[in-house]
Predict the structure.
Amino acid sequence: MSSKTSETTEGGLAATQATHAPAAAAEDERARASLAGLPHAFISAEGAGVPLNLGDLWGYRELLYFLTWRDIKVRYKQTLMGVAWVVVQPLLLMLVFTLVFNRFVRSGEGAIPYPLFAYSGLLLWTFFSVSVSSGMNSLIGNTSLVTKVYFPRVFIPAAAVGAGLVDLSVGAVLLVPLAAYYGVGVTPKLLLVPAFVGLAALLALSAGMVTSALTVRYRDLRHALPFLLQLWMFASPVIYPVGVVPPSWRWALAANPMTGVLEGFRASLTGTAFDWGLVAVPLVAAPVLVAVAFYVFRSLEDTFADII
Amino acid sequence: MEPVVVRVENVSKRYRIGALHPAYLTFREAVFDAVAARLKRLGRGGAGEDGSTLWALDGVSLEVRRGEILGIVGRNGAGKSTLLKILSRITRPSRGSVEIYGRVGSLLEVGTGFHPDLTGRENIFLNGAVLGMRKAEIKEKFDEIVAFSELERFVETPVKFYSSGMYVRLAFSVAAHLEPEILIMDEVLAVGDMAFQQKCLDKMNEVRQQGRTIFFVSHNLPAITRLCRRAVLLDGGRLVAEGSPQEVVNRYLSGSWKAGAERVWEGDDAPGNAVVRLRAARVLDERGEPAAAVDVRRPFSVEVTYDVLEDGHALTPALEFLNDEGTRVFTTHDAGEAWRRRPRPAGRYASAVRVPGNLLAEGTLIAHVSIMSHFPSTILHARAKNAVAFQVLDEPGGVSARGDYVGPMPGVVRPLLQWDTRADAL
């Protein structure tokens, strides 16, 4: 600042103009250099494409943790049984289905005992459907976050899945006595359990992203989704094994990525053989669906605050 | 010179009127609307935008350098909040672009993300994270935040059991410990009790001294003039004035009250009748210069210039002072002996009333001007409502009714009064 002032006072008007420009440019250069290392954001207009802002996902990662933590905390505040509900729901369903279906579903040679079969299926399915439905409601349930502060909004439905994962881990504890009771041994395949849980989480996240983004504009989904999830459950091998479906209809079952996830999850738990044909479907579909859903979400995200 | 850290280039934001009132759309309505809109457009030969869009911002350009505190003033709906939302990346501009260097913290609401079922402690962490603080940072400042809020005893209580004052205090305390390079604040100081507001203003002053850049929207015009070095005025989505806070605030007042510190009437539209025409009204500081803002401790005067068109009337100029809440602070008539009951010859007159220092409270003041006759009977010759508007600023230091007190001093007037204390031996 001082050097510029002295130059302008010493020179004439013409000289001032001549020396001013480079001095100012040099100063601008110095000023700009002092901005190096600061986070830089460029906000473009709506028409200018959909920036994915993947860097922000990393930059704000702690918030994903906090939102998940909040969802878990809030879910069991002021409840008597707290997190025990996570076990009670699939357990009761398992008892009911065992009473009703145990006789109809023939457990063949080497098949998984029905109560274990049903509980593992219901546990994973409950995780999936709760994650999707709470994911769908997550954005409209966090209006003040969406309209008052910036962070990658995808963390909101993602936190719903994250909270579901914690529930799932708690519910999985009951698998240990069940497996022990039915004499299912520990096999190296158990190491693959997290992989199938991960696939289920990715599928739930995809559905959560798309449905939550659409729900911001169209509230219809809130009425349709619980019904659709129910239908989806009966179209997935949750309470019945793939074997009961006539071979001519197997393709329809296989096309549902949750089929492969459920089958793979159970096979990993009990150490039985994989049906690779079924498992391959979610392996391919989950990453593709997540990418597509994320793009859909991002392209709608910029309008959330305006229309929510 | 400090580098430009925020560059707003030609930013516009368009809203559909329908989207402003978010009637929840259903698929059926969407399909119906889409078809109807297409038909309508066909009918009008493919005309583009119809009347259902609103430009909340219209071609706003702005540069802010590091360490600046920029005040943003304007009426409701002028686009202030939309601008802040774009700067905060909550919504994208319809046109134009924004470039930002540095971590941005937005305070568009007090306690964003607070959950009623969570305890004070839990909400400090959650709110801190939502506002962009790192977990380690929150941990480090946790005790400081709790101490600032003065809620040590309630930190393990769910915030739904807090009173609204406690809630705001906790939320503010988190916000006050936010240390972004760029802070964006929207009218958040409008809530909370006065003592706590002052505490927050002090904290903001501290933040300013650390060289942070602040965007500050407020209807509290004295706060704008006191805190900011530069201000902009938005009106109808456009940036209509930029400059020193006093100039801009004055411009805003002249727009909204249709009055500034100086008002001149020319020609036959001037208020008045066949006897008197008002010509000018001015707020003048001690040196006789027109002033949009006056120091709460210093005297100032309001001068009314008027033409007397007819000989032989005894005239009384009068002023009514109102504050920005519309409360009449006081009314004053010229009761001096010089012109009282004395018929005046035609001519131009200038009457000034001197208002002593340490009389008014800080804030915005508006004055109505009247010229009357009381003798032989009362006639109102000329009257101009909202003729001038000005600010009374509360500068620290000097001899004022504050003494050594730095907190808020509510009240319509703030006279410096004589106190006497008698000490008796016990």
